[in-house]
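Cross-posting from the modeling subforum.

Setting up a comparison between two proteins and wanted a second pair of eyes on the formatting. Protein 1 (sequence, then C-alpha cells):
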Amino acid sequence: MNATDSVFGAVHLGYLVIETNRFADWRRFGTEAIGMHRDDLDSGTMRFRLDDQECRFLLRRGPAEDVVATGWHLDGHTTFERIEARIRAHGVPVVEGTAEDAALRGVERLLRFPGPKGITQEIYTTPVKSAEPLRMLASGFVTGDSGMGHVAVTSTKPAQLRGYFNTVFDARLTDYIDETISGVKLKIRFLRVNERHHSIAIAAVRGLPIDPIRTRVQHLNIQAATLDDVAQSYQRVCELGFDMALSVGQHTNDKELSYYARTPSGFEWEVGWNPIVIDESTWEPTTHQGISIWGHTPVGQTIIDKLDQFRLGALSLARPENTVPALSGAGGRTPSPYEWN
C-alpha cells in the first residue's frame, strides 16, 4: 500500500453504543459520578455528551450489559470511501445505517461492518453539533484530533486483532506492557490511529488461549480537562457507592494519571488526565514492565472475584472468539450481516 493511501491520522474514536437494562444506575453513574451531560431521549434510549458533539455515548435497552458498537469519526469523504473500499475488497459485508440509527448517534450518515469480539464497527464523517449548552459537573473533556479516548479489550487472538485494526485503519503499534495480575501474565498491545497514545489496547494472557473477562470491552477511557476533574469525579464515584476497580495511579507508557471505576454493566470506566501526545517523527515502540509507575491498586477485590476470573477464563476455551478473519490477515469465513448488530 502506498503511504498516500494510508488513513492514519484521519481516524478518531467518536462514540460508543452501550446496551443495558440498568438505566437508573447508568443515569446516576454518568451524570452524578463521572459528571457528563445527559439527554434522555425516551424510555429506551439515553445519551451522554462530553463536548458540542450531540452524542458520545448512546445507551439503548437490551440484555448485553456491554459495549456493542464503536463509532469512528473520519476526517472526510475520501477517507470514508477508502475504508469502505478496503472492507468490501476483503468480502466483508457493509451496511448503511438507517436514518434513525444516524439520528440517535448524532451523525448525518454511517456505515456498519463486523468487528472483533462481536463489537460492530461504524464509520461516519459529519457529527451533528448541539447548540444546547453543556450541563456537566466536570469542567470539560479532551476530544478533538485525539478522539474521545480509548477502548481496551482482552483477546485470545491478539495478533489477529492487531491485524484487523491495521487493515481497516492503518493502526500503528505504540508500545507493549508486560504485567502480572493475580499470578496471570499478560501482554498488552497499544495501537494508535492518530496522535493519541492509543485508541485501542489489546490484552492477552501469555501462553494461554483464555479470556478472563465476561464483557467484550474490558474498559473504556475518557480524558478529563483538569486534574481537579479527575479528583472530584473519583470522590463522587466513591460517595455514590459505585465500585472502584483501581485507585488513582499513573501509567508507565502514556504517563496518564487516572482511576478505574466499575460501570453498572460490569466493564470498567477509566477517567484520565494529561497523557503524552505521540511525535511520529521520533516515536519508537518499546516494552514496559508493569502498567503503573505508582498507584492503580485493586480496590475491594476478594478471592471470590479472582476465582470467578479463572472460571470465566476456563469457559472461554470452549467459546470461539470472532476476529473477522477476512480483515485480520488470517483468512477464513466472514460472518453474515445477521450475525452482528
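Protein 2 (same layout):
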Amino acid sequence: MTGSPDPSGRPRAVVAVPPGLRAQLFTAEVWAELGRAADLVVPDDHRDRAAVAAALPGARALITAWGAPKVDAGLLASADRLELVAHTGSAVAPYVTEEVFERGVLVTQAGDAMARPVAEVALAFTLALLHRVHRFDHALRGGLEWDAAGEAPPRHEMHGSGIGVIGASRTGRAYIALARAMGARVSVTDPYLSEADARELGVEPVPLETLLRRSRIVAVHAPVTEATHRMLGARQLALMPDGAGLVNTARSWLVDEEALLAELATGRLDAAIDVFDAEPLPVDHPFRALPNVLLTPHQAAGTVECRRRLGASAAGEVLRLLSGRPPLHAVTADALARLH
C-alpha cells in the first residue's frame, strides 16, 4: 500500500483504482492537485476488500473504479470518517449499498463524461450499418472476389433516414443531437420524456412498437433497470423492417441476446454491438462469425479524453468536499435501481 496517515491531521482520501487505469484517469496535474489537498492512500489491490478496509480508517473520501468492492455495512465499519464515495463511472449500484446513503455519505458518479464518446461510437455504428461497411469488410477479409464482395443489401444515407432512439438518456440525447445534425428524422421511445423536452430535442415521441416498425436504425440508450430487462425480445425484433439495423452501446441487459442472434442468423437484420451477456466475448461465440454484425469489445467510452474527464470529475468532487462545497454530480439512493 502506498501512502500513510499524516500526523499533521491533513485529510485523507483512498483511491481504489488500479495503477494502469489510474494513469489514464488522472493527469499529472489533477493527481498533484488532489495530493496537495489530501494524503492519498492507494490500496495494493483495489479489488481486495481487506486492503480497501485497511485503508479506510480516517479517510474522508473514497474514489472507486470498476472492480472495487462494494461499500456495504462491513466496509463502513472501517470507514469511521467517510463523507464521500466518488465513483469514476456511471452506475453506482455495484459499488454502494443503501447503508451508505442511510449513514449520510455522499455518493457521486461521472456518467456525464461518457455521453459524448458513447454517442459518437453509436453514430459511427449507425453510419457503418447504413452503408454496410461491416459487410464489405467481412467479405473482403473472407476472401471473396471483388464483385462478390461488393454485393450487399440496399445502402442508405443518414440524411432523411428514420432513426429510432430507445431512451432519452444523457447519451441518448447526445446521439440525438449528432443524428439530427446529419439530417436524420429521429423518433424516441422514453416514458419519462415530456412533450416539452421532445420539442426541444426536435424528436417525435412514439410507442416502442411504432418506433421499431418504422426505423431504419434503432439505437438503444435506455438505463438498466428491472423494467428494461430484455425489453427487445423476439417479438419486438420481429417488428423491425427487413434490412434495418440495431445499435447497442448501452448494455446487453436491454436485449434478448439469443433472440437477436436468431434474427441476425437469418441475415434479415444487421447489428453493431459493443456490449454482451458474456464479457469477454467467447472466441467461438456465433456473433463473431456473422458478416452482418459489427463488434467492438465494450470500448465505446474508452477515449483518452473521456478517461481524463472521468478522473477529473471524481477528483473534483473530492476537492469540493474538502473545501466545503456541495458536489456537482451527487446521486440519491434511487440510483441503486440502475443495476449495472
